[in-house]
Amino acid sequence: MANTNNTSHTQTSQNSDDRDDDVADDRPTPMEVLRQARSQLAELTGMAAESVSSFEQTEDGWSLEIEVMELARVPDTMSLMASYQVELDPRGQLTGYRRVRRYERGRADSHRPGGR
Hints:
Blueprint: H1 2-26, H2 30-45, E1 49-58, E2 61-71, E3 80-88, E4 94-104
Antiparallel strand pairs: 1-2, 2-3, 3-4
């Protein structure tokens, strides 16, 4: 009988460990989060992401700042760019976004320290 109980306890422990591994496997890697954010923002706005200028993990998931071209102009240095603040949950699903600034591609941003 004692062997049956130990076997049962060992199986329960292994099942618990398997569930922990499954939870860890559900979390995307930072690169997967980056790709998902760019893709989801493009789908919602109709504008392709050109670059990611900020990327960090937060208590609620992920926060990114993504640069997109809103209006192409000639010459290209006059194209109108925008920065979008994008929030994602821990699994990489977009929970919100907002445009935080617009600027011409060829102009330096002297108002915001650190380029943000």
